[in-house]
Amino acid sequence: MAQKPLKKNEVLLFAYFKNNGQDGLHLATSPDGYQWTALNNDQSFLQPTVSNDKLMRDPCIIRGKDGLFHMVWTTSWHERGIGYASSKDLVNWSAQQNIPVMEPEPTAKNCWAPEITYDARKDQYMIYWATTIPGRFAQGETTVEGGNNHRIYYTTTKDFKTYAPSKVLYDQGFNVIDATVQPAGKRFVMFLKDETKEPVQKNLRVAFADQLTGPYGPPSAPITGKYWAEGPTAIQLAGEWLVYFDKYTEHKYGAVSSADLEHWTDVSDRVQFPKGTRHGTVLRITKKELAQLQAKKDTAAK
After folding, report:
1. How many whole angstroms separate alpha carbon 230 and alpha carbon 277?
2. Does the predicted TM-score (pTM) go above 0.85?
3. What are the beta bridge partners of residue 119?
4. Among candidates 52, 51, 53, 61, which has minimal Cα distance to 25?
5. Region at 292 (left for phi over 0; alpha for psi -120 to 50; beta for the rest)
6. Are 122 and 162 contacting, i.e. CB atoms less than 8 angstroms apart?
7. d(C-alpha 280, C-alpha 50), whole Å
8. HEC string of the chain?
């Protein structure tokens, strides 16, 4: 079953980037999951400092078992690591780190859209992202769009200090990016983007596994419509799943909803995000934590 509605002391937070991610972390809030308002006058809360490109694209924030907020992000279009930082209050962040998750693969082209999911059964975190290694997977090889042929890779950690060797998390014979995983009852659901260009897909699908680290089954039929979608993020609210995504060719955000993860309704016309919102993640925070973020906004406005 889906989680209960928001508690009285809870609100929703959306972490996202704008433009190319060069100015860092943006945050928005919502009382209901549909109408979103930018915080800090839609100015950055955190400037990126790691990698040669110094980008902060595709930010993913989760609340850890340790009470800290843990964030990972895409630092570059072409490097083999991901960014990491932590915070007690979403305002003050630790020193930013580069986690060299694909350094052992010298031909790896990138590390895109990392996310974190906590595995309560094993008391550890799984960090996962998309990477292309030329020639590694024959299925899906192409010469279009830079010849990218991504698969989802992952590592695990208990403390964000030491990390297991990276492994393949999802390979179903097609170009796949932008995975995000949530517990769903006794199993796990992965929302993913079918990045296939020939014939064109560019849609979102779901896959399921009994364990967080897989194996995940084949993808469902598309859950999004006749538009290009990417960057899914999901939350359970009041008996339904809401999956937000970036309608990146239309420069706006969309959403679909479902009560059972099988039948989907497009609710894009009901969601309103700050202009320019790009590939983000949703999480629950307390009203006290929101007040701290708004205090930063008030300070910035002076």
Report:
1. 12
2. yes
3. 124
4. 61
5. alpha
6. no
7. 19
8. CCCCCCCCCEEEEEEEECCCCCCCEEEEEECCCCECEECHHHCCCECCCCCCCCCCEEEEEEECCCCCEEEEEECCCCCCCEEEEEECCCCCECCCEEECCCCCCCCCCCCEEEEEEEECCCCEEEEEEEECCCCCCCCCCCCCHHHCCCEEEEEEECCCCCCCCCEEEECCCCCEEEEEEEEECCEEEEEEEECCCCCCCCEEEEEEECCCCCCCCCCCCCCCCCCCCEEEEEEEECCEEEEEEEECCCCEEEEEEECCCCCCEECHHHCECCCCCEEEEEEEEEHHHHHHHHHHHHHHHC
The pLDDT score that the predictor gives to residue 297 is 53
Quick one: pLDDT band at residue 277, thresholds 50, 70, 90? Answer: very high
Mean pLDDT of 266-276: 98
pLDDT tens string 48-83: 999 999 999 999 999 999 999 999 999 999 999 999
- Rounded Cα gap, residues 231 and 175, in angstroms: 15
